[in-house]
Amino acid sequence: MNHAPENDALFNITGHFVQELKAVLQSESIVEGPDYENSAFDEKRRAEGLHLLRFHKTGTAQATRIWEKHTTARSHR
């Protein structure tokens, strides 16, 4: 994670991991649209391997913890 405004979360992911992130968040009842917006394509962020989500009400810290827990569990499989 990199520093971003309070409702923004930069995830160090690209490609199919974006879809995996969305699925993991949805499994925790954090849904694209009502809870967050997918950022517009940004070539600089993509080159850095980052993907931006902008959250409405759900705290970015909660989403970050969910993703980190998921990736930790995945790495131990």
Main features:
single chain; 77 residues; alpha+beta; 3 strands; globular
Give a description of the structure:
By secondary structure, this protein is α+β, with helices and mostly antiparallel strands. Helix content is about 45%, strand content about 15%. The protein has three helices and three strands. It has helices at about 15-25, 45-50, 60-75; strands at about 10, 35-40, 50-55. Strands 1-3-2 form a three-stranded antiparallel β-sheet, covered by helices on one side. The longest helix is centred in the last third of the chain and has 16 residues, at about 60-75. It is globular.
N- to C-terminal separation? 23 Å
Which value, in Å, is the CA radius of gyration?
Answer: 12 Å
What is the molecular shape? globular
| Strand line-up of the largest beta sheet | 1-3-2
Number of distinct beta strands: 3
What is the average of the pLDDT values? 84
Give the uncertain stretches in residue-range form. none
Q: What is the count of DSSP helices, taking H or I runs of 4+ residues? A: 3
Largest sheet: 3 strands, antiparallel
Helix content: 40-55%
Strand content: 15-25%
